[in-house]
């Protein structure tokens, strides 16, 4: 701050030159009130021509704006009111000039407007209070003088008891005093009347400001609050709507629907937890056309009553919940979620419950899908431009690879979750929800690591892998299976050079994880484009238990593709067999085990997809047989083609 102290001592031409310099480039008031903060920042260490320093420069400018806003908020009183407005104006100007602050925070501006109105209310109220005190004092003095006038009139009545000479002298003095007093009373009465009129005008101004604040806060602000709740229902950031309560017909009976609100000292809020609430019955409306039960929306009415100031003020508050869809089976969950998401995303602020547009633009739907995707998967890796192009191609049955070509297209509710996609037996939302479900339950780490490319069709996978070395693979979401993930890989052979494994679903991953399945397939070497597989997935492999537990050796289920058994054997240096059992001398030293040669039958279909379901069923059967006592295993144990079951170790 020493630099600014020296600047304040300038005089004459030097002072005028400094004023001109600051006037052209920087508000001198900001330099004065933030002198200590400004002089403590490393301005000289920043090179604006260096792109690496631009981020630091932006942070410094944002810090300057924040300090200026804080300084403005702490200004009070009549002089502080004008300074507060001026500093706030400078903060807005600096914010607009910032490269990162071109988008002005409209909500902060709105809050500033609200605070300014409250400050104006405070000043008007203080002025009104002073005027009221002045009126009371004037009126009290007027009453005293009026009583003096009454006393003079009483003295006139007593003059008859005096002698004529004395009465004449007293009467003259009383008349002069009475005339003077009545003139004063008349003037003061007019003054009091004027004070009352001015006070009434100030009260009127106060009421107008209060109505303005009520409109901003209780109308606009509560509408935005409700909108934030809607978007929060889709996992998004705050923006919202609160509807006017309607006298709606009761549509259901809720049990255990009353509880006492709890006050949280730390946050200063009240909350209610309906721990045992349940829906006893529901009354459904008549459906129209193709409308399903999962498209019918209900709302829960919340009511509360509380008092302030020893029951002097009693408030009754009510609000409506976000849309609720009542379902009777878990299979309806996908469609019910679609109904709630569409309503929360596209409802107009202040609408009548629950009116919602039937069509929206594709960019609006993209924003809602991306918001929901990141919230459900709990990942910062959202949908990229390429992902949105893939979704647009799927929804509109279009081959254009430019996202701009879809910006003017509309999506109807029927396209979203009523009509099946062309050539498939599912809707667009059902497929997308299946993708979120499988990622959320099993593959969130892999998605965050970028190991799952995901939104790629079979032809695009072919184009991406065709020029890659053998063993390069990618993971994509299946077109034929909801919530399915398939492996596409490059491997030149006389039959083909691109392969696609039959999709894995949530049920499959509950048996064996994706990382373990990839680890089983040794001929898969590189994750697209060129990342070593073990570098990406090894930390997710399930450790192999080398020791026996309770005298038993635990079997393992491994993934094998029959056409690639030889490739796997060559890579691992072992024989191409489907079962490898090390004998346990302590239990059955001479127990014979048949070694089954490679089954020539193809498990891959004509499209190169592997029938995993049948393989897993047989795998579970083999595992059950392995759990039986050793002497019960004989030559009847016949592992299926495509399954590699191993149990290694000895019993002690």
Automatic annotation (TrEMBL):
Biological process terms in GO annotation: activated T cell proliferation; B cell differentiation; cell surface receptor signaling pathway via JAK-STAT; cellular response to granulocyte macrophage colony-stimulating factor stimulus; cytokine-mediated signaling pathway; defense response; development of secondary female sexual characteristics; development of secondary male sexual characteristics
Cited Pfam families: SH2, STAT_alpha, STAT_int, STAT_linker
GO molecular function per UniProt: DNA-binding transcription activator activity, RNA polymerase II-specific; DNA-binding transcription factor activity, RNA polymerase II-specific; DNA-binding transcription factor binding; phosphate ion binding; promoter-specific chromatin binding; RNA polymerase II cis-regulatory region sequence-specific DNA binding
Residues covered by region (Disordered): 631-652
Domain (SH2) ranges: 447-544
Gene Ontology terms: cellular component: cytoplasm; cytosol; nucleoplasm; nucleus; RNA polymerase II transcription regulator complex
Keyword terms: Activator, Cytoplasm, DNA-binding, Nucleus, Phosphoprotein, SH2 domain, Transcription, Transcription regulation
Tree of life domain: Eukaryota
Gene3D superfamilies reported for this sequence: EF-hand, SH2 domain, STAT transcription factor, all-alpha domain, STAT transcription factor, N-terminal domain
Compartments it resides in: Cytoplasm; Nucleus
Principal place of residence: cytoplasm
Family matches, as SMART domains: SH2, STAT_int
PANTHER family linked: SIGNAL TRANSDUCER AND ACTIVATOR OF TRANSCRIPTION (PTHR11801)
Family affiliation: Belongs to the transcription factor STAT family.
Protein name: Signal transducer and activator of transcription
Organism: Gorilla gorilla gorilla (Western lowland gorilla)
